[in-house]
Amino acid sequence: MDLSLALRAFVRTVERGSVTAAAKDLGVSQPAVTKHLRNLEAHIGARLLERSSRHVRLTPHGRTIYEASHPALASIDAALEGVRRDMGAIEGLIRVHAPSCIGAKHLHAMVMEFQAQHPTVSVDLVLEDRVVDLVFENFDLGIKYGRPEGQDLVIRSLGQIRRILVAAPCFLGKHGPIDTLERLSEVDMVTTAQVLSPRDTIQLQRGHEGAELRVRATLRTNNAYVIVNSLMTGHVAGPVQHLLVHEELEQGALIRILPEYEVKSHEIFMAYPSVRFMRPAVRAFADFVVPRIKAVEGVDPLERPLSRREAGSDRAVAV
């Protein structure tokens, strides 16, 4: 039995949640992965996985082996890629998770620019608005709104996401000017779960002053395209991430309303699993995109003082 191959098959099966998905990732047949798992269990003398037709679940012995073997294999892979880097090669697969808004609007272009410089790097760019476990779901790094939690992550603060209030000229032509908070509360608005509270209120800021306003949220969505399209067509007004509508504002297709107010901002972070070695391709990609994300219009520097652990624009913080 090749212990290294068996452990890789085991770790990937746990991370992907099925033998079929693990086999696809490893480029081998499903029976081959099943054979590796059986051989590993026979070698150890303990059952590591409870398997069904759809799912796999770690046994207590399996969790012990997974927690030991996952960082060890990651360190080996990183060391091997480090040697390749020293020989002038940045290559391999990078798996990236990000919110769909900044991902489709900005991160996608950064990925293509990075690949133009490093043609041997392939990228799995997964854009969706859900919380993921970067370690368990086998992502190399993720862009996250709000401070990530977990003892097995390293994070880098990128700034804060600016949210402003906008409307299309045709919307204002139909409904009249929106020049007070009371008037804002009367018009149809598009919102997201990140902005709207269970009480149908949004948190607004004017300088250092805060205000909570009850609004008429006639459209709720988690899709950035739906938000922008609904605003552009004049169907609704509402809060939006500045980074999504920078060009539309410059062109006059959208207009800021109540410009002295902004919606409460959220911090944006880059996070990646904490292992002994960070693969050179992942490190190169992180170093490439961090300054570009910070330069995006609508990603503002933090107004609060950085903690000692976050101090330094490029310092990684283990949490």
Task: Describe the 3D structure.
With 319 residues, the protein is an alpha+beta fold. It has three domains: 3-85, Orthogonal Bundle (Arc Repressor Mutant, subunit A); 89-155 and 268-318, Periplasmic binding protein-like II (D-Maltodextrin-Binding Protein, domain 2, 3-Layer(aba) Sandwich), CATH 3.40.190; 161-265, 3-Layer(aba) Sandwich (D-Maltodextrin-Binding Protein, domain 2). It contains ten helices and 15 strands. The chain has helices spanning 3-16, 19-26, 30-44, 60-86, 100-117, 169-175, 181-184, 224-232, 242-251, 280-294; strands spanning 49-51, 56-58, 92-98, 121-127, 141-145, 153-167, 188-191, 201-206, 209-214, 216-220, 238-241, 255-256, 262-273, 299-300, 317-318. Strands 3, 4, 5, 6, 8, 9, 11, 12, 13, 14 and 15 form an eleven-stranded mixed sheet that branches. Strand 3 (92-98), helix 5 and strand 4 (121-127) form a beta-alpha-beta unit. The protein is elongated. The two termini are 37 Å apart. Mean pLDDT is 86; it is low at 305-319.
Labels describing this entry:
319 residues, D-Maltodextrin-Binding Protein, domain 2, two-stranded antiparallel ribbon, 10 helices, 15 strands, 26% strand, elongated, disordered C terminus
Topology (SSEs and partners):
Elements (H helix, E strand, L loop, with lengths): L2 H14 L2 H8 L3 H15 L4 E3 L4 E3 L1 H27 L5 E7 L1 H18 L3 E7 L13 E5 L7 E15 L1 H7 L5 H4 L3 E4 L9 E6 L2 E6 L1 E5 L3 H9 L5 E4 H10 L3 E2 L5 E12 L6 H15 L4 E2 L16 E2 L1
Parallel strand pairs: 3-4, 3-5, 7-10
Antiparallel strand pairs: 1-2, 5-13, 6-11, 6-12, 6-13, 6-14, 6-15, 8-9, 8-13
Helix pairs in contact: 1-2, 1-3, 1-4, 2-3, 5-10
